[in-house]
Amino acid sequence: MDYPIWDVALGGGMLMALVAIPHVIVAHFAIGGGLLIAVTETLAVRRSDFELRELARRSSLVLILVSTVFGAISGVGIWVVAGLISPAAISALIHTYVWGWAMEWVFFILEIVAALVYYATWGRISKQAHLLVGWLYVVGAYLSLVVINGIITFMLTPGEWLASRAFWDGFFNPTYWPSLVLRTGIALLMATAFMIFVALRAGVERREALLRYLGWWLVAGCVVAYAGYRWWEAVLPGTVRNLFRGAEPALAQLAATRSFALWSLTAALLLGLVVLVLAPRLARPATAAVLALAAFAFFGGYERLREGVRKPFLIHSHLFSNGLLLSAIPELNESGVAAHSGWVARGGEDGASLGRALFRAQCASCHTLDGYQSIRRALPSRADLAALAAAEGPEAAERAFRAECAACHAEVGAQEMQGMLPSAEEMGQDPEMMAELNRGMIAATLLELRDMGEAFTAAPHGAMVDTAPLFAPYMPPFVGTDRELEALADHLASLDRGAEPTPARQGGL
Predict the structure, then answer these.
(1) Is the pTM of this model over 0.85?
(2) What is the dihedral of CA 340, 346, 352, 358, to 10 degrees?
(3) CA-to-CA distance for 391 and 258, rounded, in angstroms?
(4) Which residues on adjacent β-strands are paired with residue 325?
(5) Euclidean distance between CA atoms 346 and 241, whole angstroms
(6) CA nearest 105: which of 144, 67, 139?
(7) Contact yes or no for 365/85 (Cβ under 8 A)
(8) pLDDT tens figures, 252-305
(9) 178: helix, coil or strand?
(10) Phi-psi group of 348: left, alpha or beta (phi > 0 → left; psi -120 to 50 → alpha; rest → beta)
């Protein structure tokens, strides 16, 4: 909350996904592709196999163009986007793992230099020297993954770091090794997905043999990735795993994402076995594209799942998605957000301006106005209340309740909620009363969210917080004084879909 807010109509999380997922696909191809190319050239030299060496040579061009060009550009894009939408998280990761990032950059420079030299020296240096350069690339690329994996997994399972704040406690966290195995399998999967297109250009007499060779690599990648995934899932804390596993997962969307990812991996495995291993004559650019899409879908689904199970944290049990430190909750509730955040204080002293600034500081990291995770659609409205009040009969009331109210009022039933409300006729006769009722519901929710902050601060120090019993387990708590709570309630109530729209409300936040 100490940083200015970057407003993104698309939503910061969605923008990050659009930049990050293509990058990690390419980055893992750079790792797995380097290994597969180096092994392929080594076998070709030992067997004096011209076609196998040509597969390695042509694939190295794809590696250069895709990984060192697109990969490098999209990698910069991740830093830019992450620094703008989550500056507090980037600051925390840099301060905690500054020497980790330094090591990663050393390995990354080795990787880039080796890749360029490797491609530029085909046929210009001895085969043994060329192989040495290729294996240097493999070492640099894989060690880059080894370092970054520790930082990425730390964000979900910081482990002993929560108590010790020690570099290695956070680095070798509970999901480090499972994730490394999983990503190694994914790297092999991404490599074969790209290299199939290169193999399709080989001569007819060797094409099937090369495709079958790549097919076994793809099968190995699928098996290793699946084993790593199941290990990763098994070591997750129960409070995290329950979000997407079990008879009644807490987040149905994440459960669906898990199923999507695993079925995509199954599809990639079956396609690889049929099209590459058993009947490589069936391989065509179209079937290769379908296989690659299945592999990409598995990886993208896993990344969405991994990001989603961190809710509501950026660094679990330490830093919330809006940049709020768990340790800062008591102080901010006592003295107010505006007293600590110059960007909130600059929003203005009047209630409307303060409410808007508080929304941007505490809510806008996850919610847009009318786009991704629209706050307007999530809030109660007079139209919602009127629809429930006007519903006739238990079935109609239940439908209206599920559509408009159940997300926030699971503790009551449709008819019980209907009985609490004025009649539809009374609502129409007194719109001001309805506006005040709607605002009161929003303020009551904010009070619950502020009280929830006490549960976070009361949680055992040094352990991951179990969010399941909390009022809103996937949201950060509201922090601030009573005046700030009232100002935010006023601002959120002004977004009511039943109110007359204004140019300001139709635009930004």
Answers:
(1) yes
(2) -40
(3) 37
(4) 319
(5) 41
(6) 144
(7) yes
(8) 889 999 999 999 999 999 999 999 999 999 899 999 999 999 999 999 999 999
(9) helix
(10) left
